[in-house]
Amino acid sequence: MTSSEKPATGAQTGQSVPTFPWLPNVDWANSVPRAPLAFYAAAYREGMGAASRFMQDQASHLKNLSECESPSDVLVCQTEFAGKALAAMMEEGRRAADTISGALAKK
Predict the structure, then answer these.
(1) In terms of pLDDT, which residue wins out, 73 or 16?
(2) First to last CA, the chain
(3) CA 47 – CA 44 distance, rounded (Å)
(4) Do residues 100 and 39 make contact, with C-beta atoms less than 8 angstroms apart?
(5) What CA–CA distances, in Å, run from 2 to 6, 14, 38, 43, 58?
(6) Distance of CA 104 to the CA centre of its chain
C-alpha cells in the first residue's frame, strides 16, 4: 500500500480523525479483552429475549382471564399462570446461565 492509498483518518499516527476532530483515536480499544464485551452482549440479548417471552405469556394470560365466566374460573386461570410463570422463570435462569457461560468460554 502506497502512501496515496492509506486512509486519511490519522489512526496510524495517533491523531484525531480529521472529519470528527473531537473523536480521539480509539486504537487502544483493540487491547481491551473481548470477554467482558461478550458477557455483556450475551446478558443483554438474553435479558431482552426473556422480557419478550414474559410479555407474550402475560398477554396470553390476560386473554384467558377475559374469557373466564366465573370467579372460580379466574382463580383456576390465575393459579395455572402462576405455576407456568414460575417454571418459565426457572427455565430463563437456566438459559441465561448457559448463554453467558458459553459467551465467557469463547473469549
Answers:
(1) 73
(2) 32
(3) 5
(4) yes
(5) 7, 19, 36, 43, 61
(6) 15
Task: Say whether pTM exceeds 0.85.
Answer: no
Q: Where are the alpha helices (DSSP H) in 1-107?
A: 35-66, 71-106
Q: How far apart are CA 85 and CA 76, in angstroms?
A: 14
Calpha distance 44→97 (Å, rounded): 12
Q: Which three cell numbers stand for residue 64?
A: 384467558
CA distance 4 to 17: 17
| Lookup result for grid cell 402462576 | 82
- Tens digit of pLDDT for each residue in 43-96? 888 899 999 999 999 999 999 999 999 999 999 999 999 999 999 999 999 998
* 91 SS3 class: helix
User: Bridge partners of 2?
Assistant: none
